[in-house]
Amino acid sequence: MAMDELMSRALAALGENGAPSVEVIHALADADATTEPMTIAEAAVHLDVSPHTLRYYERAGLVEVGRDPSGHRVYDAAAIRRLVFLTRMRLSGMPMRDLRHYVALVDAGKHTEPERLDILLEHRDTIRRRIRELTLSLAATEYKIATYGGSTGPGV
User: Fold this and answer.
1) How does 39-49 read in b/e, with b if 16+ C-beta sit within 10 Å?
2) Rounded to whole angstroms, how far apart are CA atoms 99 and 89?
3) FRET label pair with 125: which of 28, 71, 89, 94, CA 20 to 30 Å apart?
4) What is the enclosing helix (H) or strand (E) of 67?
5) What is the Cα–Cα distance from 28 to 85, expressed in whole angstroms?
6) Which 8-state DSSP code applies to residue 110?
7) Please, are residues 100 and 60 in contact by the beta-carbon 8 Å criterion?
8) Which residues on neighbouring strands pair with residue 20, listed in sequence order?
9) How far, in Å, CA of 99 to CA of 104, rounded?
10) Which of 127, 84, 123, 132 is nearest to 101 (CA)?
11) How far apart are CA 112 and CA 67, in angstroms?
């Protein structure tokens, strides 16, 4: 399933407060489990990123990617799951240094879960602040559009 489809399914499952529940996101991620290995081109389409981005994440040590006998990259289910997380965190504004630290903690083992939780809690606060800021920016933009006689609102 391509990232756009995953996003559409997540948005369709919005909860009462406008946010997908943890259970819904978990179910979507499980339904998206990839069983067949992917080439770099297939993974790039699946994740809606460029092959260059995938190679960058690999060079940065954020994901391990196997190789076929010809030396071509082969993205297994674990690599795709990690890349889904990485691409969502980057889209949400998480800096690469924080992603590197987080992945190093994941790779270090279960005993790092409290520190990983702290990182994610802090990042959640950052995302919520950005959403509030963007909501205000959207309202200002909608006001200006209405000032010029344009149509505004969620259905536009």
Assistant:
1) ebeebbebbeb
2) 8
3) 28
4) strand 66-67
5) 13
6) G
7) yes
8) 14
9) 8
10) 123
11) 29
What confidence category does residue 31 fall into, taking pLDDT thresholds of 50, 70 and 90? very low
Identify the CA nearest to 83 among candidates 131, 121, 45.
Answer: 45
102-154 pLDDT per residue, tens: 999 999 999 999 999 999 999 999 999 999 999 999 999 999 999 998 877 66
Given a contact cutoff of 8 angstroms between Cβ atoms, the answer to whether 154 and 138 are in contact is no
What is d(CA 33, CA 39) in angstroms, rounded to the nearest whole number?
A: 16
**Residue type, position 89, single letter:** M
Q: Are 66 and 46 in contact, with CB atoms under 8 Å apart?
A: no
Backbone angles phi, psi at 135, to 5 degrees: -65, -40
d(CA 49, CA 141): 28
> Measuring CA to CA, which residue among 67, 81, 72, 103 is closest to residue 32?
81
The whole-number pLDDT of residue 150 equals 82
User: Residue 156 has which token pair?
Assistant: 């536009």
* Tokens representing residue 18 in the block: 């406008």
* 66 strand-pairing partners: 74
